[in-house]
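Field reference: sequence -> structure
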Amino acid sequence: MNYNSASDCRNLVSAVERAVVPWLPVGERNGKVHRIPPGVHGLQPDQQTPKTDLQLVSANVLGVNTNVQPSKPARTRKANLSEMSTQSNESDDPGTDGFIFHQIGTLDVWGDDRHNLQSFEDAGKGPWLPTGFCVVMRFTKSGIANGLYLIYDFYPKNDLDSREKRIEDDNWGCLPGDGTSEQFSLARLADQITELRFGRTFHLTEVLDYPIQLVRAVKTPDETIIRATVAE
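Structure field:
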């Protein structure tokens, strides 16, 4: 599909928001099995309505800036990165400053003994537990899929189903029951969605160990999608 195409994206959203949608098996990491329940609204940007002359696209498509961090206490801020910046990179050129993505779902972990998960029937019954991470598909300026990523949700829902407050302490970014102390906000999960399956051991790459900034996406006059600029 072309992620720059409004009709293609509408079809994708319609598919993953159906009342009955099969979850996607992911594989195993450090003895823990994971899956993806589909969904397109797991993440929200740090600013909902940035000032821009371009057309905002639906929030199921967002951008991530990896060279700036949202304002937060200095003790949790990476020393060599700035706080929220007006230079939020309205571009999609190859590089290390961020990218555009379409939301795919959330990441769950098997919540029982491993030996109780022997079949898809067992998987269908559960139990599964949320990890706090969402799964997204990165795509290029031409709209071509360019890898599956995990992004941590820094705006978890509270008891009132509200997502107003961003996590400001150090309790974020660890996969439950992973057996490691690795903390990360973003990591590449797979090159293609067809790689995901039970029985597969997956390894994370392009791991970022500091909080990142999520921004809205906008459509340019030439029908490409880029990241919007966020003001301080």
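Note: The first helix runs from residue 6 to 16.
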